[in-house]
Amino acid sequence: MSAPQQAPQADGQSVLETRNLCVRYGKVEALRATSIRLQAGQIVTVIGPNGAGKSSLLNAIMGLLPSNGTSEGQVLYLGHDVAHHNIEHRLGKGLALVPEKRELFTTMTVEDNLVLGAYRRRKSGWSYRDGLEGIYKIFPRLKERRKQLAGTMSGGERQMVAIGRALMSDPKVLMLDEPSLGLAPRVMAEVFHVISHLRESGVATLLIEQNSRAALQVSDYGYVLEVGDVTLEGKASDLAKNPKVIEAYLGKHA
Ligand SMILES: Nc1ncnc2c1ncn2[C@@H]1O[C@H](COP(=O)(O)OP(=O)(O)O)[C@@H](O)[C@H]1O
Ligand SMILES: [Mg+2]
Prior knowledge:
By secondary structure, the chain is α/β, with parallel strands linked by helices. It folds into 2 domains: about 10-95 and about 170-180 and about 200-254, P-loop containing nucleotide triphosphate hydrolases (Rossmann fold, 3-Layer(aba) Sandwich); about 100-170, no CATH class. It has 11 helices and 11 strands. It has helices at about 55-60, 85-95, 110-115, 120, 130-140, 140-145, 155-165, 185-195, 210-220, 235-240, 245-250, and strands at about 15-25, 30-35, 35-40, 45, 70-75, 80, 95-100, 175, 205-210, 220-225, 230-235. The strands form 2 sheets. It has a 6-stranded mixed beta sheet, with helices on both faces. Strands 1, 2, 3, 5 and 6 form a 5-stranded antiparallel beta sheet that branches. Helix 7 packs parallel to helix 8 (about 185-195). It starts with 13 loop residues before the first strand and ends in a 5-residue tail after the last helix. Magnesium ion binds next to helix 1.
């Protein structure tokens, strides 16, 4: 465990790094000089209470802040600062975000929702069929339900469609904003199970969660974000044993 905002974790190539990233909404400072790092093949989680700035962090990395939001600082993706590039550019380079509101096309089928996620790849003459097969391997249930309207799926299934759609863009970094929000415990466990297997598909995952226990269980490394500042960071297994984290986030109700 290291002190906040020190040099990031061990060696290894970093796919994504923020340096002193700040987000403001007018006078509201939602994120202060936040530096986090994600290495190839890792699952990294940012845990923290409601309002800590978790969504602001992901939206700033993706270039998706609302019109009243501004960010400062660096967003290094594969070593290049993309902080001034638009969302299409970032998506095209391999960053993907599943926002907290999953925003599926509810009157379209599951499969059509997935295919829409592949628009970046279609340009290069790649067949979306191959992409679909890959997604159906990870989520066999989506294959069974591929002709069903997305709006008629359960909460957990919709989350899988949203993750599947993001994976169709063949990202190198997948960011998930509270994927377990609003899900029943059994479904939540299923979603976390899927997340833990994302490593095998070669994407690096940045996971934002209020369900700290489950998030730390599937992650390699973690950051604790509190009112705009990283207050703790460390290996996920160390954070899970840290008395401060246990008291604030893993208490008997967590
Ligand atoms: N569009 C916005 N306009 C003004 N304030 C916002 C906006 N979005 C978020 N905030 C504020 O920024 C802070 C961080 O919010 P957010 O990033 O959504 O936190 P979290 O995802 O950790 O719950 C909160 O105080 C929130 O009220
Ligand atoms: Mg949020």
